[in-house]
C-alpha cells in the first residue's frame, strides 16, 4: 500500500510540472507574437543603402521607414540620413564622431558596437551646404498642446530702469549745528530741557554768566566814552568774538542759529563751561536723508538728480517724492552694493529719523529695445538660450545676449529679432532634446564644422 501511494504522488507531480512548462511556453509564444510586429516595424538595423529613415530625438534607437510618432513618448519622428558606416561621409557631410544614443556625451573615432549597450554606434555629422539644421526639434502639435506649451512674441518697447530697495530715514547732516560756549563762565539759565525739544531760529536756548564777557562789555563802554572810533571798533570786535552782544549786562544769551530740534544736550543749569564746551546740537528736519544700497549691476542706472519714491508702513497710502542727492564713490566689497543718499522734503515732520522705507529709484528709460518674457530665457551658467517657435511643430534653440530685467520682462541685446515667437512654458523639454541632438555643441563649434 505504501509503495502504491508513493507512485501515485510521483505521477501527480510529473503531470503538474508538464502543465506549468506548457503554460510558460504558450505565454512566451503569445508575447513574442504580440511584440514581433512592433520590433520589426519600429526598430530597424542600420540602413546599408544610405536611405532616409525616421527616428525619435529622445529615443534614437527607434527607427522606421515611414513618418509617424514615437511609440515610447509620442513625439513626432524626424527624418535622418544614415549612410553606410564604412563610407565615412554622407554625401557632402563629414562624420564628426560616433556615439551611443544612450550615452551621447561619450564620443568614438570609429564605428562599431557600443561598449555600453547591445547596439551599433550612430554617426554624428557636420553641417553641410543645403543640409537641414540639426538643431531643429520637431514636436507633434497635439503633443505640444498636451504638454501645455505656450509661446509669446518678442516685442519692441520701452524698458523703464528702476531699482527697488529699502532704506532708513536719517538726519540731513548738512542741517546740523553745534552750539558751544565761546567764553569761560557758568550756565546761568537753560531754556531747553531735553533732547527732542523744538526750537525756532533766533530763540534763546541758554544764558551764560562770564566774567570775561563782562570785562569786554566794560571795555566797550569806556571806548565809547572816549569817542575814539578805533578803540570802539576793537572793543566791539572782541565782544563779538566772545559771543557777547552790546547791552547784554552780566549775562549773555545763546540763541538758536536755525529752527529744528535738540539732538543732544550736553549741559545743565549751573554747569561751568570753558571756551569750546559743547552746549547742545540742533538739527533742521524740514528735509531728511534716506540712505539706500543698490546692487553693483544696477548702480550704473542711477545718477545724481534722478527721481525716487519712498513708502512707509506707518504712513499707508502716502508716496513721498525725492531725488538722488549723492552716489557714494566706493563699492562695498562684501555686499557688492553701492550706497546712495536720497533727499526728501519733510515740511510736516512726518518723516522721522530711524523710520524704514520701501524705496524705488528710477534710472531713466531705454527706448526701442527688444523685450522678451523673463521665463523664456534658459540660463545654463555659461550662456542664455531661448527656444524659438518656427511653426509647424518646429523649435530651434537660439543663444541670446540678455540685459536687465524687471517685472517679468528682460531686454534682449542680440540674437533675436522683433516678432519672433519664443517658448515660455515647456521649453526645458525642448532644451533637453536639443542637448541630446548636439545643438549646443554646434552653436559653440568653429565654422569649419569640426566636432568637439
What does this structure look like?
With 452 residues, the protein is α+β, with helices and mostly antiparallel strands. It has helices at residues 2-42, 141-146, 211-226, 229-241, 427-436, 439-444, and strands at 52-55, 63-64, 78-81, 89-90, 93-100, 103-108, 122-125, 137-138, 150-153, 155-171, 176-180, 185-190, 198-199, 204-209, 251-255, 260-265, 272-273, 278-283, 287-295, 307-312, 315-332, 337-345, 356-373, 378-379, 384-391, 394-406, 409-414, 421-425. A hairpin with a 2-residue loop joins strand 5 (93-100) and strand 6 (103-108). It starts with a helix and ends in an 8-residue tail after the last helix. Mean pLDDT is 77; it is low at 1-8, 13-19, 21-50, 81-92, 127-134 and 439-452.
Name the descriptors.
rod-shaped; 4-stranded antiparallel beta sheet; 6-stranded antiparallel beta barrel; 452 residues; conserved putative lor/sdh protein from methanococcus maripaludis s2 fold
Outline of the structure:
This protein is an alpha+beta fold and 452 residues long.
List the helices and strands and how they pair.
Elements: H1 2-42, E1 52-55, E2 63-64, E3 78-81, E4 89-90, E5 93-100, E6 103-108, E7 122-125, E8 137-138, H2 141-146, E9 150-153, E10 155-171, E11 176-180, E12 185-190, E13 198-199, E14 204-209, H3 211-226, H4 229-241, E15 251-255, E16 260-265, E17 272-273, E18 278-283, E19 287-295, E20 307-312, E21 315-332, E22 337-345, E23 356-373, E24 378-379, E25 384-391, E26 394-406, E27 409-414, E28 421-425, H5 427-436, H6 439-444
Antiparallel strand pairs: 1-2, 1-3, 4-5, 5-6, 5-7, 8-26, 9-28, 10-19, 10-23, 11-18, 12-14, 12-17, 13-16, 14-15, 16-18, 19-22, 20-21, 20-23, 21-22, 23-27, 24-25, 25-26, 26-27
Helix pairs in contact: 3-4
